[in-house]
Amino acid sequence: MAQKFDVATVLEREIQSTIDKWYIRVEAEPKLSDIHMSREARCAHLPGMFFDLVHRIRNPLPLGTQALTSSSAKNHGSLRRDQGYTAAMMVEESRMLQVSIFETLQINVEDTEPGVLLLYVMVIADEVDSQLAQAMSSYITEAKVDEKAVLA
Q: Which of 30, 53, 61, 126 is most buried (most C-beta within 10 Å)?
Protein backbone atom coordinates (compact mmCIF):
# COMPACT_ATOMS: atom_id res chain seq x y z
CA MET A 1 0.00 0.00 0.00
CA ALA A 2 1.33 3.43 -0.97
CA GLN A 3 2.18 5.90 1.75
CA LYS A 4 -0.41 8.64 2.29
CA PHE A 5 0.70 12.22 2.89
CA ASP A 6 -1.00 15.18 4.46
CA VAL A 7 -2.02 17.95 2.07
CA ALA A 8 0.71 20.29 3.34
CA THR A 9 3.38 17.73 2.48
CA VAL A 10 1.92 17.18 -0.99
CA LEU A 11 1.90 20.94 -1.62
CA GLU A 12 5.49 21.30 -0.38
CA ARG A 13 6.58 18.43 -2.60
CA GLU A 14 4.80 19.90 -5.62
CA ILE A 15 5.59 23.61 -5.22
CA GLN A 16 7.63 23.86 -8.40
CA SER A 17 5.18 21.91 -10.56
CA THR A 18 2.31 24.03 -9.20
CA ILE A 19 4.22 27.24 -9.95
CA ASP A 20 4.93 25.89 -13.45
CA LYS A 21 1.20 25.25 -14.00
CA TRP A 22 0.38 28.73 -12.74
CA TYR A 23 3.01 30.35 -14.93
CA ILE A 24 1.68 28.61 -18.05
CA ARG A 25 -1.83 29.88 -17.26
CA VAL A 26 -0.61 33.43 -16.64
CA GLU A 27 1.46 33.53 -19.82
CA ALA A 28 -1.53 32.25 -21.84
CA GLU A 29 -3.73 35.11 -20.58
CA PRO A 30 -3.05 38.18 -22.77
CA LYS A 31 -4.26 40.64 -20.13
CA LEU A 32 -1.52 39.36 -17.80
CA SER A 33 1.21 38.47 -20.26
CA ASP A 34 0.97 41.94 -21.81
CA ILE A 35 2.82 43.09 -18.69
CA HIS A 36 6.27 42.01 -19.79
CA MET A 37 8.54 40.64 -17.10
CA SER A 38 10.88 37.73 -16.61
CA ARG A 39 9.62 34.43 -15.26
CA GLU A 40 11.67 35.09 -12.14
CA ALA A 41 10.01 38.46 -11.54
CA ARG A 42 6.51 37.12 -12.25
CA CYS A 43 6.92 34.14 -9.89
CA ALA A 44 9.04 35.77 -7.16
CA HIS A 45 6.17 36.02 -4.65
CA LEU A 46 5.01 32.42 -4.95
CA PRO A 47 7.53 30.58 -2.72
CA GLY A 48 6.68 32.88 0.20
CA MET A 49 2.98 32.53 -0.42
CA PHE A 50 3.29 28.73 -0.50
CA PHE A 51 5.24 28.86 2.77
CA ASP A 52 2.39 30.85 4.33
CA LEU A 53 -0.19 28.47 2.88
CA VAL A 54 1.55 25.36 4.21
CA HIS A 55 1.95 27.06 7.59
CA ARG A 56 -1.79 27.80 7.66
CA ILE A 57 -2.63 24.18 6.83
CA ARG A 58 -0.36 22.89 9.57
CA ASN A 59 -1.58 25.48 12.09
CA PRO A 60 -5.31 25.59 11.45
CA LEU A 61 -7.52 28.54 12.19
CA PRO A 62 -11.30 28.50 11.99
CA LEU A 63 -12.41 29.18 8.41
CA GLY A 64 -13.03 32.86 7.85
CA THR A 65 -10.65 33.88 10.61
CA GLN A 66 -8.33 36.68 9.62
CA ALA A 67 -5.16 34.81 8.77
CA LEU A 68 -1.75 35.78 9.97
CA THR A 69 -0.13 38.70 8.21
CA SER A 70 1.72 37.63 5.09
CA SER A 71 4.68 39.83 4.22
CA SER A 72 4.85 37.99 0.87
CA ALA A 73 1.30 39.03 0.06
CA LYS A 74 1.83 42.63 1.13
CA ASN A 75 5.03 42.92 -0.89
CA HIS A 76 3.31 41.29 -3.84
CA GLY A 77 0.57 43.93 -3.89
CA SER A 78 3.03 46.82 -3.86
CA LEU A 79 5.24 45.21 -6.46
CA ARG A 80 2.39 44.40 -8.84
CA ARG A 81 1.21 48.01 -8.63
CA ASP A 82 4.72 49.17 -9.57
CA GLN A 83 4.77 46.62 -12.42
CA GLY A 84 1.58 48.05 -13.92
CA TYR A 85 -1.00 45.48 -12.87
CA THR A 86 -4.62 46.53 -12.39
CA ALA A 87 -6.65 45.30 -9.44
CA ALA A 88 -8.58 42.99 -11.78
CA MET A 89 -5.32 41.49 -13.00
CA MET A 90 -4.30 40.70 -9.42
CA VAL A 91 -7.61 38.95 -8.81
CA GLU A 92 -7.20 36.93 -12.01
CA GLU A 93 -3.65 35.97 -11.07
CA SER A 94 -4.91 34.78 -7.66
CA ARG A 95 -7.74 32.81 -9.27
CA MET A 96 -5.21 31.07 -11.48
CA LEU A 97 -3.14 30.23 -8.42
CA GLN A 98 -6.11 28.55 -6.74
CA VAL A 99 -6.88 26.58 -9.91
CA SER A 100 -3.24 25.47 -10.14
CA ILE A 101 -3.17 24.39 -6.49
CA PHE A 102 -6.43 22.46 -6.87
CA GLU A 103 -5.13 20.82 -10.05
CA THR A 104 -2.02 19.73 -8.14
CA LEU A 105 -4.21 18.19 -5.43
CA GLN A 106 -6.37 16.45 -8.04
CA ILE A 107 -3.31 14.93 -9.70
CA ASN A 108 -2.00 13.79 -6.31
CA VAL A 109 -5.32 12.81 -4.73
CA GLU A 110 -4.26 9.18 -4.34
CA ASP A 111 -1.25 10.32 -2.30
CA THR A 112 -3.33 12.28 0.21
CA GLU A 113 -4.97 11.16 3.41
CA PRO A 114 -8.52 10.05 2.62
CA GLY A 115 -11.50 11.96 3.95
CA VAL A 116 -9.87 15.33 4.62
CA LEU A 117 -9.30 16.77 1.16
CA LEU A 118 -12.47 18.88 1.08
CA LEU A 119 -11.58 20.48 4.40
CA TYR A 120 -8.15 21.42 3.10
CA VAL A 121 -9.58 22.76 -0.16
CA MET A 122 -11.65 25.15 1.96
CA VAL A 123 -8.59 26.13 4.02
CA ILE A 124 -6.56 26.70 0.84
CA ALA A 125 -9.26 28.87 -0.70
CA ASP A 126 -9.61 30.84 2.55
CA GLU A 127 -5.85 31.40 2.81
CA VAL A 128 -5.35 32.32 -0.86
CA ASP A 129 -8.24 34.79 -0.58
CA SER A 130 -6.76 36.20 2.64
CA GLN A 131 -3.43 36.68 0.91
CA LEU A 132 -5.19 38.36 -2.03
CA ALA A 133 -6.96 40.72 0.39
CA GLN A 134 -3.62 41.60 1.99
CA ALA A 135 -2.01 42.13 -1.42
CA MET A 136 -4.92 44.31 -2.51
CA SER A 137 -4.68 46.36 0.69
CA SER A 138 -1.01 47.00 -0.04
CA TYR A 139 -1.84 47.76 -3.69
CA ILE A 140 -4.48 50.31 -2.66
CA THR A 141 -2.19 51.89 -0.06
CA GLU A 142 0.43 52.37 -2.78
CA ALA A 143 -2.21 53.96 -5.02
CA LYS A 144 -3.09 56.44 -2.27
CA VAL A 145 0.58 57.28 -1.77
CA ASP A 146 0.95 57.82 -5.53
CA GLU A 147 -2.15 60.04 -5.54
CA LYS A 148 -0.81 62.18 -2.68
CA ALA A 149 2.52 62.59 -4.48
CA VAL A 150 0.74 63.82 -7.61
CA LEU A 151 -1.37 66.28 -5.62
CA ALA A 152 1.63 67.66 -3.71
A: 53
* Stated pTM of the model: 0.87
How do residues 58-98 score in pLDDT, each as one tens digit? 988 877 776 677 888 888 999 999 999 999 999 999 999 99
DSSP 26: H
Cβ-count burial of 18 within 10 angstroms (0-12 exposed, 13-18 middle, 19+ buried)? buried
Name the residue range of residue 129's domain: 7-151
Give me the CATH number covering residue 68: 1.10.490
Q: What beta strand segments (E) does 30-152 contain?
A: none
